[in-house]
Design brief:
single chain; 27% helix; globular; binds guanosine-5'-triphosphate; binds magnesium ion
Length: 539
C-alpha cells in the first residue's frame, strides 16, 4: 500500500515538473514535400547517437526507409504519409521531435502536430526556395505563435544564391532571417559554414553516403583563408553585409515570431546537423503553461494534464494495436496512474504507456510537460481529447479541415463485412478520412471525405492490407460541404444535384458539386442553415 499523498508530495511533484519541463525541447520538422525532413530527422537522431547508422540508402529508388517512415506505402514511395515521433537526449536536454508529412494532402496531420509543439524547424530546399506549401506552413506557425528555426537544406546540390534566399524569406514570409551560420562555397560546392557567432570555419568532411556522423573540423579565420582562399573571403564579405543590414539573432524577436535564425545544412551528408541540435537546445523555447478552451492557463506545475493530438494504428503488423499520442501539458505523468478522460469523464488507466521511436517503442515510466507519449490500445481516446488528474481541464478542440473530395466506399468481398466496418471505423477515428453516412446509400456504402485525394489511396491500401477488407471507391461529383440542420432538410431535398450526409458526431452536411450550386440554393432559400466548415488553414 502506498501512503496517501501529502501536500509536501504535491510540492515536490510540481517542482520536478518545472525542472524537467525546462530541459524539454519539443518541435516539429516541417516543409514542402521532399525537402529532406525525414532525412534530417534521422541525421539528428544519428548525431545524438540514438541510432548507430542512418538507415536510409539515400536516394528514392530502393531506399530502405528512414526511421520515421515506417509504413509500407511510405517506404514504397519514399514519402511521409503520417507524422512520426522520436524522443532522445542530447546534451542535458530531452528532445521530442515530430517528423511531419510534407504533401498537402496530409496537411491535416501536420496541422495537428503543430498544436503539440513549442517550436518548428522549417526546411527549405536550396534549389527550390519557398514553395506554396512552405508559405502555408509559415502562416500556420505565425497564427499559432510558434517560433521557427529555418534550415536551408541540400546545400551540397546546385541551388539558389544564399543572399537571394534570405531576401526571398523576408519578402515572402515577413520574417527577418538572422543566419547563425553562413555557407562557405556556393550551393553545390559546400565546403562548410562560417559560424557568425565567433567567425570560425566549420569545415565539413564527407563520410561514405552520409551514413555516419560527419566529422567537423574547426578552423580559425586565418586558417580558413589559407585553406579556402577566395571562397572563404566571399563568405566573410557576405557575413559583413548581413551584419550591416542588422540580420542579428535576438532571442526575444525570435520567440515572438519576428525573426527566424537560419542554418545551412546537407541532411543527407549530416552537415550542419550538430549546429541545429545545439541551436534547438540553446534557443528553442521549453514548454510553457497552456491555455485551456476558455483561455485560462494551466501552469506546468499544476496537476497532470495532456491532450491527444494523433491516433494511429497499424504501426506494428504483429500487434494491430491502436496508439494515441498525447502531449503532456502540465504535471508529472507516471505509468499506471489513473487519469480522467475529459470527454467521457471516465477514468482511464495508463498501464501501457510508451515512448515512441519511429515504429519502435519502449515502456515509459515517467514523463513531463513537453513529452510526447503513446498510449496503447486507447480505443476510447479520440483526437483532441483532454486527459487530467485532479482539477479538470479541457484544451481547445483540434480543427477538422473542410473536405474537398468525396467517394463512396464499398466492400469488394461481401463475406468481409465485419472487417470492412471495423476498418472504416478505425480510419475515421484516426482522421485518415472522414466517414459520412448517407441515408440514400445505406450503412454498407459510407461516403469518405478527404482534403487531398492521396488520403483515398492510403485508406484503400490500409483497408486491404491492415484490415483484410479490399474495397472499391467510386468518386462522387462534389467538391464542397456545408453544415446544416434538421429543419433545413425538407427544402434541401427539393434541390437537385446535392446530397445530405451525416458525420460520426451527428452533424449534418450538405455536399455540393460546386459553389454555384450552393449559391443558387442560398438565393432561392435565404433562410436555410448552410454554414461553412472550419476554414482549412493549410489545405
Ligand atoms: N542532395 C541532397 N539530397 C537530400 C538531402 N536531404 C534529403 N535529400 C534527399 O531528398 C529526398 C527526400 O528526402 P526526405 O527526407 O524523404 O524528404 P521529406 O521532406 O521527408 O519528404 P516528405 O516527407 O515526403 O515530405 C531523398 O531522396 C533524400 O535522400 C540533402 O541534404 N542533399
Ligand atoms: Mg518525410
Amino acid at each position: 500500500m502506498t501512503a496517501a499523498p501529502t501536500p509536501g508530495d504535491a510540492d515536490r511533484t510540481a517542482r520536478s515538473a518545472l525542472a524537467e519541463a525546462g530541459r524539454r525541447r519539443t518541435f516539429a520538422v516541417i516543409s514542402h514535400p521532399d525537402a529532406g525532413k525525414s532525412t534530417l530527422t534521422e541525421a539528428l537522431a544519428l548525431h545524438a547517437r540514438v541510432i548507430g547508422q542512418a538507415g536510409a540508402v539515400h536516394g528514392k529508388a530502393g531506399r530502405r526507409g528512414t526511421v520515421s517512415d515506417w509504413m509500407d506505402m511510405e517506404k514504397a514511395r519514399g514519402i511521409s504519409i503520417t507524422s512520426a515521433a522520436l524522443q532522445f537526449e542530447y546534451r542535458d536536454a530531452v528532445i521530442n521531435l515530430l517528423d511531419t508529412p510534407g504533401h498537402a494532402d496530409f496537411s491535416e496531420d501536420t496541422y495537428r502536430v503543430l498544436t503539440a509543439v513549442d517550436a518548428a524547424v522549417m526546411l527549405v530546399d536550396a534549389a527550390k526556395g519557398l514553395e506554396t506549401q512552405t508559405m502555408k506552413l509559415f502562416a500556420v506557425c505565425k497564427h499559432r505563435g510558434i517560433p521557427i528555426v529555418t534550415v536551408i537544406n541540400k546545400w551540397d546540390r546546385p541551388g539558389k544564391d544564399a543572399l537571394e534566399l534570405m531576401d526571398e524569406i523576408s519578402e515572402r514570409t515577413g520574417l527577418t532571417p538572422t543566419p547563425l551560420t553562413w555557407p562557405v562555397g556556393i550551393a553545390g560546392d559546400f565546403r562548410g559554414v562560417l559560424d557568425r557567432r565567433d567567425g570560425t570555419f566549420r569545415r565539413f568532411t564527407r563520410t561514405a553516403g552520409g551514413a555516419t556522423i560527419a566529422p567537423e573540423e574547426l578552423l580559425t579565420a586565418a586558417e580558413a583563408t589559407a585553406r579556402e582562399g577566395e571562397v572563404w573571403q566571399q563568405a566573410e564579405e557576405e557575413a559583413e553585409l548581413l551584419e550591416a543590414t542588422g540580420a542579428e539573432h535576438d532571442q526575444e524577436s525570435f520567440l515572438s515570431g519576428v525573426t527566424t535564425p537560419v542554418l545551412f545544412a546537407s541532411a543527407v551528408s549530416n552537415f550542419g546537423v550538430g549546429a541545429l541540435l545545439d541551436t534547438l537546445v540553446d534557443l528553442a523555447p521549453p514548454p510553457a503553461g497552456r491555455p485551456d478552451a476558455d483561455g485560462a492557463v494551466r501552469a506546468l506545475g499544476d496537476p497532470f494534464s495532456a491532450f491527444v493530438f494523433k491516433v494511429q494504428s497499424g504501426m506494428d503488423a504483429a500487434h494491430r494495436d491502436r496508439l494515441a499520442y498525447i502531449r503532456i501539458c502540465s504535471g508529472v505523468f507516471e505509468r499506471g496512474m489513473v487519469v480522467t478522460h475529459g470527454r467521457t469523464k471516465r477514468p482511464f488507466a495508463t498501464k501501457y504507456a510508451q515512448q515512441v521511436f519511429g515504429r519502435e517503442r519502449e515502456s515509459v515510466d515517467v514523463a513531463y510537460p513537453g513529452d510526447v507519449v503513446g498510449l496503447v490500445n486507447a480505443s476510447a481516446l479520440g483526437v483532441g481529447d483532454s486527459l487530467y488528474t485532479d482539477r479538470p481541464v479541457s484544451y481547445p478542440p483540434l480543427t477538422t479541415f473542410a473536405p474537398e473530395h468525396f467517394a463512396v466506399v464499398r466492400s469488394r468481398d461481401t463475406a468481409k463485412h465485419k472487417q470492412f466496418r471495423k476498418g472504416i471505423e478505425q480510419l475515421d477515428s484516426e482522421g485518415v478520412v472522414q466517414v459520412l453516412r448517407s441515408e440514400r446509400r445505406g450503412d454498407g456504402s459510407p461516403v469518405l471525405a478527404v482534403v487531398g485525394p492521396m488520403q483515398f489511396e492510403v485508406a484503400t491500401h490500409r483497408m486491404e492490407h491492415e484490415f483484410n477488407a479490399p474495397v472499391a471507391l467510386d468518386r462522387l461529383p462534389y467538391n464542397m460541404a456545408m453544415r446544416t440542420d434538421e429543419a433545413s432538410l425538407p427544402l434541401i431535398a427539393t434541390s437537385g444535384g446535392v446530397e445530405v450526409v451525416q458525420r460520426t458526431n451527428g452533424e449534418l452536411l450538405v455536399l455540393f458539386p460546386d459553389k454555384w450550386a450552393l449559391r443558387i440554393l442560398q438565393q432561392r432559400h435565404p433562410d436555410l442553415t448552410l454554414e461553412p466548415l472550419v476554414a482549412a488553414q493549410l489545405a
